[in-house]
Amino acid sequence: MWQFIKYVFATIVGLFLFSLLGFFLFIGLAAALGSSEEKTTVEKNSVLKLNLNSSIQEVSVENPFAEFTGGQGEVIGLLDIKSALANAKLDPNIAGVYLDVQYPMVGWASAEEIRDAIIDFKKSKKFVYAYGEVMTEKAYYLASVADKIYLNPAGGMEWNGLSAEYDFYKGTLDKLEVKPLVFRVGEYKSAVEPFFRENMSDASKLQNQVLINTIFGHAVENIAKSRNIPAAQLKNLADSLSIDSPQDALKHKFITHIGYYDEVETSLKNELKLKEDDKIKFVTLGKYTKADKLVKEGPSDRRIAVIVGEGAIMSGKSNDGNIGSETIMEELRKARKDKKVKAVVLRINSPGGSALASDVMWREVQLTRKEKPVIASMSDVAASGGYYMAMGCDKIVAQPNTITGSIGVFSVLFNFEDTFRNKLGITFDRVNTNAHSDWPSVTRDMTPFENNRLQKSTENIYAIFTRKAAEGRKMPLAKLQALASGRVWSGKEAKANGLIDEFGGLDKAIQVAAQAAKLKEGDYRIKYPAEKNMFEQFINKLSGNAEEQLMQQKLGDFAPYLKVVKKLQQMQGTQARLPYDIVIK
Fold it and tell me: What's the predicted TM-score (pTM) here?
């Protein structure tokens, strides 16, 4: 009886949750349909308000609940931000731009593109205001081009330089009695170090030190120009932690004003010649994307297709956070067969992943460039497998602070035999038809012969990678190999070494593609990827959360360890991947 009642209760709860989810999906769908039809009318003397504290990805994720949540959890697109600024530059009803910038969740190269778009907007002679209660270095990098920069009197500014941090799992694997089996090529291929070290190797520390010095140095150079502060002084202020308060920031000319938000509003009203009781006509990014488009489009029969790959590389279809080789191949085929498409820009934001999936996409790039130009546009990171995607293109465009290179591969397997025996009491036995029928296995040690075979396989894939990279870059193999070995480069170093062709963002890559296709400025239309579907991502995350909660309920204290194991399981086959979970802050 109790068992019956329990099942009935579980069924009722399940039906309730299903109905609740269905209700929200229906409301969201209705809101999405309604918002897609509603056009924004921009009133005269309006201000474009850009909240840059949300997660910023290449392409926005549609969120019909944004108006109700104040933008919390919103994912905004880099393409939307740039498009809005370009449109506002021409819009006679937009008087200026207001930047709400404190903790931008964006990479340095994407921040560079936004900053460049703001600089371009300023050519219209319209004002740009920036305000933050606090500002990180990246936030200040964006705000530094504003005409007026306000910092809250009780707030603060981070100005102490950059730091790169890795997670290391050797201690976790030791506690779980998991034995990592690592096969790699390249002195600098440090992606596997977290599995068998507790800190960075000398080679890894060297490449990361150079990388963050270059990224920070580039930021300092640009800030020095925009704020008219010597670069040496900016570096000294970071070393001495001299920017500790808003007063310090004002004293050293980092900002123009100290003030609360109401004081910023008062200043804006004076700028707009409004009375004290008048309201400022702010237009949010979401609303402005539905306003009249003033940037002229070229003819529809001459297009440049932009294909975006963002996330780790894997085989199959793309999903939230991953580049699926099958999806990219389909998009390249469509562009290749579409007679209206005259050139392709492959936009890449990826730390790499499956070497096989990377090679499959490389082949599709080769087939496409036989018929029309293919230009690679590197975003925040296009390294290892991400570089593999780019190296076969006709030209590669990247920002000076793009993270790229990492031309190297690794294979990693794990022996869980002791984990199962000593932690769970599970043992294994087997029979084989041949000497190595069960190879590779995660429940026994491999023989020296088997280890040697995996190392050779990894070296063969590295040889293919470097050979194709040398051919794509039109340089001797020996020179390319000297730049490889898994070494990570900034875009600035990559250009000096011949690994990329030109500096710039997506707009620059589109210009290069147009020139390659012999299209004149204004004589073509850009075909951007469609906005991501918020509901598909919501369902994916909901199912992922449910799995995580179930794992926590069933395994208790062992759940965090299993999370690590699940991450390792995703690395199937030989990997062309950046150092694991690099964090620059």
Answer: 0.85
